[in-house]
Design goal:
- Helix content is 15%, strand content 19%.
- By secondary structure, it is an alpha/beta fold.
- It has a 30-stranded mixed beta sheet, with no helix packed on it.
- Helix 2 runs antiparallel to helix 3.
Amino acid sequence: MLVLVVVLFFGAAEFCSGRNTSFNCIEGEREALLKFKLCFHDPSHMLSSWKGNDCCEWRGVGCDKNSGYVVSLQLQGSISYQPFWYIIGKQQPLLYLIDDVEEVVSSLLKLRYLEHLDLSNNNFNGSLIPPSFGLMKQLRYLNLSFVQFRGRIPSELGNLSRLRVLDLSPYYYGGLHVGDGIQWISHLSYLQQLDMSGVNLSHASSNLFQVLGMLPSLSWLSLSWCSLKNYQLPSRNHRLNFTLLGNIQHLALFANFFQGSIPIFIYNMTSLIFLGLSGNQLNGSIPDSIGQLSKLERIDLSSNQLGGSIPYSIGQLSKLESIALSANQLSGSIPDSIGQLSKLERIDLSHNQLSGSIPDSIGQLFKLESIDLYANLLSGSISNSIVQLSELEWINLCCNQLSGSIPDSIGQLSKLEMIDLSRNQLSGSIPYSIGQFSMLESIDLSGNQLGGSIPDSIGQLSQLKRIALSGNQLSGSIPNSIWQLSKLESIILSDNQFGIEFLEWLQLPKTIFVIDLSNVSISGPLPENIGHMMPMLAELHLANNLMNGSIPKSLCTLKYMRALDLSNNMLSGSIPNCWRNDQPFNFIDLSSNNLSGLFPSTMAQLSFLVILHLNNNSLHEGLNVALKNFTSLVVLDLGENKFSGSLTSIVKGEISNHSLKVLRLRKNLVSGYIPLELCSLSQLQILDLADNNLTGRIPPCFGKFPFMVNATKVIHDDSGYWDQTLLMEVVKGRYLEYTRRPLRLEISIDLSSNNLIGSIPEELIFLKDLHNLNLSWNHLSGKIPEKIGQMENLESLDFSKNALSGTIPNSISGLTKLSHLNLSYNNLSGPIPTGYQLQTLEDPTIYVGNPQLCGAPLLKKCPNNALPPTTTNFKDNNEGALKRMWFYIVVMLGFSTGFWGVVGTLILVKSWRYAYFRWVDDVQHWILVVLTLKVAQFKKMFNGNRDDQ
């Protein structure tokens, strides 16, 4: 019997235990979940497991193990782990709402014990957040971030009083807002984490932080990209519960509109572990009190306007793991106290004005993984202490003034993945020890003064993807092993003193993406099958070498190609006519070769092409270049060729919104009239048609080029392609090579050495931002425009070798920026104006060939009745008249104020008026008395003198 009881007891226990462990989900909740499923399109099949009787086994569904009730739904889509402002376009939602969002909430409300709900990173198609979410009062976790909700956040969410975590970050910046109602947040008394990044809080009341201070458990707060302003921050006068805010450990206020100094209340938040204030407009210095935040592990104050030096007290933050102060205006030296941050893993001080040397104390940061000091004013040598940073993976010291040699022992940094020491003043040789960088993926030593040869050990860098050694003084042969680095994607060795055979670099792996071997004395032809040997090639730069042969047609097969530079070689033959519209070319430079044949018509299919240089070749026949087909073109340089025909084919079709900035056809055989359609190029800033056979008149509409009239009002491309181009222009009487920034600023018209006739259009005076105007060597007649002085930014003006007549306008002396002038060999007469800028142009050859001119700097003196006029700047005249007008206005205002200040007071105030007239009577009486006495004295004196006589 006892045995039977024991058996029954354990059997019953096992039955009960088995029942609890195998409890299926509640049928009503299973039906609610199936209804929820019908509200969405599910292309990723995330809900494909939602079938069968046991919903607790479905993907994303969590049930209570004892009751079987659904307590958790985790149905988040996938998204890259990046800050909010980089997320756009990278979201990969798994669910797409196809029903009313109220139906979704209706089905969720039937899950009465649901505590955890995560629908983040799905697509709710811009729906409003239903107020009925506030009925799910059992929720402890709610994540609706990046689900493409819009509109106002309902205050009913304040009913979720058991919430611990709330994330409402919208997919679109500002897609959600709270209006002026924020009080509902104070009802979430158990809330520990709140993320409303991207919610528009610009209209939230000024007591925002007072409301947040009423949440006793709040420890994690993110209000980045919320359009917050200073008035919403707590000030010293706020009755803010600093004790409650003192519990916050994570504070992210990135990218708002905060100005002034770092908010003072932050220094009372002594529990802070993370502080993020980047992307605001904070200024002033970083105070010493920053050292009071002793628990701080991460601080980001980057992208502000903070100045002054980095406080020495930064060394008191003994728990600090990451510090980002980049993109500010910090100056002074890096404090030695930084070496006290023994737990520091990442440091970013880039884009500041820090000076002095890199402190040796950095060598004490044994946990440091990343250091970025890019773009400062640091000098001195690279400290040997850096090689002690055995955990270092990433180092960027680019763009400073560092000198000396690279430490020989730098190879001890065995975990290094990226090193950038470019654009400094480093000398000596590349250390052999770099071959010890077994994990290195990128090395950039370009733009220094390094000499010697590339060490053989570089071939041991088996993980290397990018190597840049350009702009040094390296010589000798390149190690064969460098061409055999199997993971290499980018090799940039330009502007050195190598001698490279084609057979060497053609051994590069098929994965190569960028090749820049410009100006390294490569000789020989390009292999015909180069496009098949390197199918992933996107950039090929081989300029300024000794290459010959033809351009391979296989380049047309490269589907990733965006930049091709074969300029300044000895290539011959015709340009392949096989380009395709699926090639993403934006830059092609084939200039300064011996190329011949026709312009390749298929180039018009390169819809992304921005810069095209074919100048200085022997291309010939008609200009088969219709700008309407080159929709993205900014620079078109076909100069120094043998193109013939007219300009009409270039401007045929609709081009009024074209992006072209530079049109250069110098030194060809182009003939005919200048078409009026050319004036439709609204972005044009350099027009060079010099040295052709153009005839007819200069179109008056040339005076309407918008960019030349007012460069500041024209929206123009600034995408960086200028940094890849150069241009030869005749300015100030000589060839000048314009590159990068100078080219961006140049605004020029050159129509010289043609057969143009007629007068200079008066409309040209409206080109106030034009820098260079050259109309020399034509057959122009008539007078120089009388108001030419209005072209106030002209630096170079050349009207020489024409048939211009009349006098030189006096206003020409108003061109105060003019540094080159040539009016020689015309029929000009009369005195040469003097004054202002003309006094600095003393070369008599400026006016030679005009026998009727007189006055300095010519030796011929003017007759007395034709003295050279001393001109004044019309602009100065206008300014003088304006000043005189304001002088008279101020005098009249002063007089009126004084007059009515006295008279008006006497009229309006009776007591003052009586007192005033009494005073006048008293003065009058005093004057009469004085006069009477003086007259009496005079009479007495006069009578006395007469009696004496």
